[in-house]
Amino acid sequence: MASVAVDPQPSVVTRVVNLPLVSSTYDLMSSAYLSTKDQYPYLKSVCEMAENGVKTITSVAMTSALPIIQKLEPQIAVANTYACKGLDRIEERLPILNQPSTQVSLGQKC
Predict the structure, then answer these.
(1) What are the TM regions of this chain, as residue ranges (predicted)?
(2) CA distance to 33, 36, 38, 49, per residue, from 42 (Å)
């Protein structure tokens, strides 16, 4: 008898990043950041140095943390399940999360 593969539940981080409001806001901010870097060469060089530093630190941190993450994987899975249930509730109560930032109105201007 063939077994059926069950897709694991997506991580809460993946779900949050894929929310239309979050992803569209990230895209807008990323575009503004890249545009600013292109317009100001000195700022671009400073930003690129900072980016390289963050990449290096992140790589070292992930390498160091990987054994701990692997050991805590069952607990992380349980926490992810609860976080996803909480996100389900938040999405129900805040439908604005499923709209891109270009469609969101923050109220009237004074």
Answers:
(1) none
(2) 14, 11, 10, 11
Read off the pTM: 0.76
DSSP state of 98: G
pLDDT in tens, 21-46: 999 999 999 999 999 999 999 999 99
Burial group, residue 87, by CB count within 10 angstroms (0-12, 13-18, 19+): middle
The count of C-alpha atoms lying within 13 angstroms of the C-alpha of 34, restricted to the half-sphere facing its C-beta, is 6
Q: Angle 30-32-38 (CA atoms, 0-180°, nearest 5)?
A: 105
Cβ-contact 9, 82 below 8 angstroms: no
